Amino acid sequence: MKDEKKAPKLRFKGFTDDWEQCKLKNKAEIVRGASPRPISNPKWFDDNSNVGWLRISDVTEQKGRIHHLSQHISKAGQSKTRVITEPHLLLSIAATVGSPVINYVNTGVHDGFLIFLNPTFNKEFMFQWLLMFKPYWNKYGQPGSQVNLNSDIVGNQSVAFPTTSEQERIANFFSELDTAITLHEEKKQQLKCLKSALLQKMFAYKNKSGDPDVRFKGFDERWERHMLNDLAIFNPKGTLPTSFEYVDLGSVIGVEMISHKTISKFDAPSRAQRLAQVGDLFYQTVRPYQQNNYLFDNKDNAYVFSTGYAQLRPLIDGYFLLCLVQTKSFVRKVMNACTGTSYPAINSQDLAQIGVNIPINSKEQRLIGNLYKVIDNLIMLYQQKLDDLNTIKQSLLQKMFI
Q: The pTM is what?
């Protein structure tokens, strides 16, 4: 049986050689980027330049694989930084510390990154190892302070390397897994864009008659104007059970509940007041521009929502009402009625007085609601698959590296 320190827990068939422990500085020349100063001076930047300027925001947005950059550095700026013109592996040492990067475009690298020059390792293999190791850089920071990495610390980090062929096999496997994750993310984003576009068309009015731009075939009745309190009962009273699942602000993201906690009514905060019934719509009244609103459908347990939500018991199709309150036009009306700047909020009484247009025909309401329900379910399905793939990847990173 192999020593655990010389071989990972999980390997591809046919590979049996011990992994070699080696310091990173012996596998690449590690140098720090450089930044022109003061960085705010516009002379360092030029939109017409073919050399980009890499920022940590680009790393976050592109998941560490840089294929395009929105900011570009001028000739003068290039003389004050390190310019790379071939694919390179980098590591962030400022802001989001320890994030690995593979850069594929011409770019100037500022001093918040280290560059691995002339590496003798497979770049993709090392990229995945650095992803696995990212939490462990915390040992170089004091409790409560930011981690402080530099080329010496990173260069002296010991890493176990397999043979070149095994590095390539591992690199290809994780690259394919990352491609699958990216495809799922793209499909989810496409569905979200489709939903947004349909909301704009199916709830946008081409004239003052109240007729939307796009409708299902066979419906031509004029939409009616109503106040929101005509369409739902606001904040119905209920007696709290002895214990329940508590849903606070932050527990709903988009139209999905992501968390809740079991609590006794004797230990519950005073804001735990809204006892949910299947079909109730919970509208986030604090920072409503976030559009975190939930149509409750759990029959198994007692749930109580925070008073940070207005509770609407729909008198029309519930999913149609959820779609309506997600539209940009409705959000604008709510924001105009809000008080406060840092934490704009609307009270239930003012929310109830907002005017909206709805179809007279309840069948048209249901068709619109069902359409968005299907799209939302697909979005959640892709999110679940993404969560599963990311969980699998994290597990494999721990098992396939030392």
A: 0.82
